[in-house]
TrEMBL record:
Name of the protein: ANTAR domain-containing protein
ANTAR domain span: 172-233
Keyword Cell membrane: no
Xref: SMART domains: ANTAR
PROSITE patterns registered for this protein in UniProt: ANTAR
Length: 251
């Protein structure tokens, strides 16, 4: 006869195996937006899930950054407009919420009445994605169903696994954005450096003077410094306004 310890070990083993399978499934989907892949995976793997979305909290503002259906975006928007709802609280409280009868919900009465009446939503699962990103944003996973008491304990566990993988997906989005910004900065710096070299050689000015000339040209033309630098590198000409000298009058 198996002991309680054996049963617990078997259960944990199944959880670990399922967690790995979900990760493998997500990696196959992330040729597109990884956050969108997380939302779509929630709908695929949780039987009564109909729509899902990812909410991002940054600078005190909630926005939907991935969704499986416009209905999910509409449901999110109701939460944002009333300033209350399972997803908002899941993010702020670092908790998991599973309302099962939103039309008669005491915790979020205004949101519950509106989302039930306007969209027919009665059940939700809401998670905060584990804080993996090193910027100031926090993400949350929202899963919607029009059925009452649609989600059971197993669904909550599967959602938790998806949310855990979702944190890594959110980090990948932040990392990709940082890499893109860094690459753009490197390109801009290289182009500015080339333009400075052209000015230093052609006009016999110092490095600081060359940079000041580029800044003045940027200010005068109301164009980005990088764009001015590109022109200088290609043409050798610096677009500065002509300096009009006053005429000297004879006494």
């Amino acid at each position: 006869m198996a002991s309680d310890d054996d049963t617990t070990t078997d259960d944990l083993g199944r959880v670990a195996e399922r967690f790995r399978d979900i990760g493998d499934h997500l990696r196959k989907m992330t040729h597109r937006d990884p956050l969108e892949a997380v939302a779509r995976m929630a709908v695929e793997l949780i039987d009564r899930a109909e729509w899902a979305s990812i909410t991002r909290l940054a600078d005190g503002e909630f926005t939907t950054v991935a969704l499986t259906d416009d209905m999910a975006c509409e449901a999110d928007a109701i939460q944002y407009s009333v300033g209350s709802g399972p997803c908002l609280d899941a993010i702020i409280d670092d908790a998991v919420y599973r309302p099962s009868d939103l039309s008669h919900c005491e915790k979020w009465p205004e949101f519950g009445r509106r989302v039930s009446r306007e969209l027919g939503v009665e059940s939700m699962l809401s998670y905060r994605l584990l804080k993996e990103t090193d910027d100031e944003s926090i993400h949350g996973l929202n899963i919607y169903s029009r059925g009452r008491a649609a989600f059971d304990d197993d669904d909550v566990l599967v959602g938790l696994m998806i949310a855990t993988h979702g944190a890594l997906a959110a980090q990948s989005v932040v990392d990709a954005r940082k890499i893109d910004n860094l690459q753009q900065a490197l390109v801009s710096n290289r182009e500015i450096g080339t333009a400075m070299g052209v000015l230093m050689t052609r006009h016999h000015v110092t490095r600081d003077q060359a940079f000041d000339l580029l800044r003045m040209a940027s200010q005068n033309s109301n164009r980005k410094l990088r764009d001015v630098a590109l022109d200088v590198a290609e043409t050798g000409e610096l677009p500065l306004p002509a300096v009009r000298r006053g005429e000297r009058r004879e006494a």
